Fold:
Amino acid sequence: MKKSILVLALLACVSLVFAQDIKIGGIGPVTGEAATFGISTKNGMMMAVEEWNAKGGVFGGRKVKLIFEDDKGDPAEGATVYTKLIQQDGVVAIVGTVMSKVTLAGAPICQANGIPMISPTSTNEKVTLVGDYIFRACFIDPFQGTVGANFAYNDLKARAAAAIFDLGNDYTKGLAENFKKQFEKLGGKVVAFEGHPSGATDFKAQLTKILQAKPDVIYIPDYYNDVGLIAKQVRELGFKGPLVGGDGWDSPDLVKIGGTAVENGFFTNHYSSEDTRPIVQDFVKKYKAKYGAEPDALAALAYDAMYIMLDAIRRAGTTKGSAIRDALKTTDLNVVSGRVKFDENRNPIKSAVIIEIKNGKPVYRTTVNP
Ligand code: PHE
Structure:
């Protein structure tokens, strides 16, 4: 009797000293067509985890062990790493991933396994509709497309718009449609609407058709790599008007690829490092000190998404999937990118910013509330 009490007491002490780490999966495209997205995402997540661990962990002295995987910007690779994190590593939750087309491949895997998941930056509407374990930390594209169309119509005074998008990418296709719907609702005309195959590098055929329709503005809702190339080619073809896009433009490489062709370019985004709120400036300062770079929206949202997930696990006080999911639902948190509370589809309602490319630099123009 005495002996077994002793053993139990000893076990309790040992478990306190060696409180088991909480394994969290992180995913982002660190290589592939949009590698800066993945690098920023990984940096943001690591910074959040370090802060939580320095404060003593999530609950009961349990610290976070982040296991980060590269989805390479590819849906099939994405499905593989989601499965690996859940089945091999035994993560209790996943923060990821970035591109909607890849997140759409991973979300059903999380849902089927009862693993709560939050995407920092996937804006396609369908992502959280996969199921009740799927959350996101960003606004959705019906809002983003509306903001882009309002800006083109009201601020740029465009009346004829064209759009070019990637036929194999849910994000760019969806956002082009969202833009078109709103631009037409405002009374504008979408004079050309051109899809191109994924992986294309020559867009001249689509752009020639677009220019024949004489648009005032061209909407390019794509990732920075394609945007840079499209901008260059459309300028070569003689178009001088404004180019408008979405959050996929957010990369230090946009200007490296597009050069002066992306001047007179504007895009909707989640956050600006020029925001003067103390929580933003504090984050920017810490991030710069740690990584020697200006944090983009991907870094900010990955940091936020990790905070949202760890806050839910702390409140749940357990690593049980259904309990974390329920705690996520009642999130009410002030994070770098704004206040986060989820609606019935597990989407937060957040404002957007408009960024202008000026003299090779992204410059904050305005904030648009939902
Ligand atoms: N919103 C994009 C998508 O859903 C990803 C992205 C977010 C890219 C933020 C850049 C910045 O695919």
